[in-house]
Hints:
This protein is α+β, with helices and mostly antiparallel strands. Helices cover 30% and strands 23% of the residues. It folds into two domains: 8-153, 2-Layer Sandwich (Methyltransferase, Cobalt-precorrin-4 Transmethylase, Domain 2), CATH 3.30.950.30; 166-379, no CATH class.
Amino acid sequence: MTLFDKPFSDITEDDIKFLQSQEILESKTIEYKNKLPEDTSSNKKEFLYDITAFANSSGGIIFYGIDENEGKPIAINGLENIDVDKEILRLEDIIKFGISPRISNLTIRSLELSNSNNLILIQIPNSWSSPHMVSYNHSGKFYARNSAGKYQMDAHEIKQAFLLTETINDKIRSFRVNRFNAILDGNTPLRLDNNPIIILHTIPLVSFKSLINIDITWIANNFIHLRPMGGRPSGSKFNLDGVYTYLNLDSPDRNAYAQIYRSGIIETSSNLLTKKMQNGSKRIMSIFFEQEVLSSLGNFLQLYEKIGIEPPIFVFLSMVYICDYSMGVDSNISFMWRDRYETPINQDNILFPEIMIDSVSTEDLPRKIKSLFDMVWNSTGWPYSMNYDESGNWKVGNQGI
């Protein structure tokens, strides 16, 4: 959920005053409280009921330090004489150890007011792993939320919530498989001929959990954010599915595109990341491949932040026509290691298992997707990506071709 058409981290005191001046009522996604939960068992439970109710519904924000009357914000006094860091840590610990399963991408921040008091804001996502149960002190209760506030879920609602989560996960994987098969059949925004094709999908959970219709005109006008694997886009074009960018419309032998669907799903396919060597061997260009996946994925995450699409984001990598290709590794890797590990891929097409990213931040992105790169290297006989050091840091340009 986003308020004020800006990221949660950018909310200011003026934004809070806007809630009061416009008499924005408490709703399914907004709640005001004038004080933090006290450190008692009953207060902790009530706090956790509030948190899970948002997570099991549409997500939202709780504002601590705002007085309300019948759901209307009437005073923004803030919280007096609190140790902000200590309180945030306390709330994080209550949430961490009191809810099952844990809620990913929940964010707590403070906001200092002009009167030197502070607000505490908690942003709860529309969770991909709902329903969440309050496990603190063996409570075992499930809560949801509507416009009137939170309520305890009955057995039928709990069952439906579990089924809905399973259905959404199945729909996400089915979309990936259907698009994979469509690419095999040549159903792409532009032609990609001859070379193996590497495909990257980013699928936000909200694309299947909510009704989303992104502003494709804005994206077409700002197409630089929709970066294909292979380089900076040359331009953009509209199509029935949304908008796509391209590198070179006239060169199907060496090309790439990035398509964003109206639902927020992004697909980029490229035949630029492999190479047939002069000695007849076939190589995945390991550094270039990883660089381009990281560059495109980083751009997509930044684009999601700009257009207000929140995580989690499911990331899928696939390869077609990849049989007999091995991983390109340069001479810094000894022949002994290459003889021991190097094995050409023995199947035409590969759909790698997905990974899930729970933040649109690009900080430490190579570490976040290391497991994905490791799986690609596994498929060519190597135990892990040789482009990372022993601490899991990506060694840009150190190993590979």
